[in-house]
Amino acid sequence: MLHSMQEQYDKFREYVEELEKCRKELENLKFENNLMHEKIYRLEMEKSSLKEKVEKLTEYIGNIEQVSRNKDQIISSLSQELNSYRRLLMVLIMLILLLLLIILYLSLQ
């Protein structure tokens, strides 16, 4: 009977040790779970931050594109004005030449 009680006690001791191992493993798993939740939270925050940065960069790129279009319009407008001034200059030169010819003609008579 003593032998049987010793066996039961040994079995009980094994179960207690196994339960202790399981408890420690559960604590470790809880700790790892908490770490994972913290990492997920940080990643979500980083994702939000990156999303905001992408939105700002998209807006910035849109602004750059708008400035580029405005620059192209200004260049086109200046080019048209320059062509108008060239025409006016050519007309002025022709008028001056015509005036010189008229003066020359009148002076020869």
Keywords:
mainly alpha, single chain, 109 residues, rod-shaped, 1 helix
How would you describe this structure to a colleague?
- The chain has 109 residues and is mainly alpha-helical.
- The chain is 98% helix and 0% strand.
- The protein contains one helix and no strands.
- It has one helix spanning 2-108.
- It is rod-shaped and about 160 Å long.
- The mean pLDDT is 95.
At a glance:
This protein has 109 residues and is an all-alpha fold. Helices cover 98% and strands 0% of the residues.
Largest sheet descriptor: none
CA-atom Rg in angstroms: 46 Å
Could you give the count of β-strands?
0
Count helical runs: 1
Q: What structural category do the secondary elements indicate?
A: mainly alpha
Strand percentage lies at under 5%
Unreliable residue runs: none
* Spatial gap, N to C terminus: 158 Å
Question: What overall form do the CA principal axes indicate?
Answer: rod-shaped
Write the layout of secondary structure elements.
Layout: H1 2-108
